[in-house]
Amino acid sequence: MKYLAIADELRGRIARGDLPPGARVPSTRRLATDHGVAMATAAKALALLGQEGLVHAEPRSGTVVAGREHRGGRRGLTREQLVRTAIAIADTEGLGALSMRGVAARLGVAAMAPYRYVRGKDELVLLMADAAFGERGYPAKPSGDWRERLTLGGRTLWSLFRRHPWLAQLGPITRPLPLRNLATHGEWALSALAELGVDAATLCNLHVLFFSHVQGMAVHLEREQNALASSGLTEEDWMDHQGPAVTAMAAGHPTFARMLADLTETGYDLVLDDIFELGMRALLDGLALRFGR
């Protein structure tokens, strides 16, 4: 069977030391692509190695080769293990690759075992999101004016979206998630915006505007990961490939054409971190001007 062949290959690489303890094992998507199999088949190979104690899931790293201290089987499963393993999968492979069966495979447990701790994927994703938003907080005693505090709030959220790109994909701003740790970020931003002296409806709208800027930029993080995985092209490779089409598109659009010519001459890298900061400054400048603060 194909999954046994994949497992044998990985087992051999581990035995030879090509994949030493702590080394990251190819992702399910990578194995599926390299071996021309379905992702479920690749996941089954990793599950087999997990059951043998050769690999285990590591938060924010994916599946890694187990050290001696991990070998010999896994202790009783906990909800914390389940959530952290699911986060590790989503961080490295995207939310679309997450499944209850895949989480069980990474943990080396029976396919139905996770259902003893959560009702299904929807509940698991909410637990993942709450855990991720809880990874960073704020000073117990806020300092600085409204602008400084809102800047800290924006950068804190951005760092979490950076660490967990899938967070920005969870739902529209019109359907906020009922998460305790997300509420902590909301309270920090609202307390800063309240200093503008606005009514409740305006305060709510401004908070939506603020959060939308952070989330709206972060949406592109996982999309870029997915584009790279599906095409094999980096951003630079893709732009080089699209060069002739972009040049043709610029015909008849003089401002666009001049911009492209200048950027080609000076060099340009689209850096989302820089654009996020530019947008934050513009947003805060606008609020200061609008509300006299």
From TrEMBL:
The keyword DNA-binding applies. Residues 1-68 form the HTH gntR-type domain. Residues 99-118 bind DNA. GO terms for biological process: negative regulation of DNA-templated transcription. Pfam families: GntR (PF00392), TetR_C_1 (PF02909). Residues 76-136 form the HTH tetR-type domain. Keywords: DNA-binding, Transcription, Transcription regulation. The keyword DNA-binding applies. GO terms for molecular function: DNA-binding transcription factor activity; transcription cis-regulatory region binding. PANTHER family: HTH-TYPE TRANSCRIPTIONAL REGULATOR RUTR, TRANSCRIPTIONAL REGULATORY PROTEIN. This is GntR family transcriptional regulator.
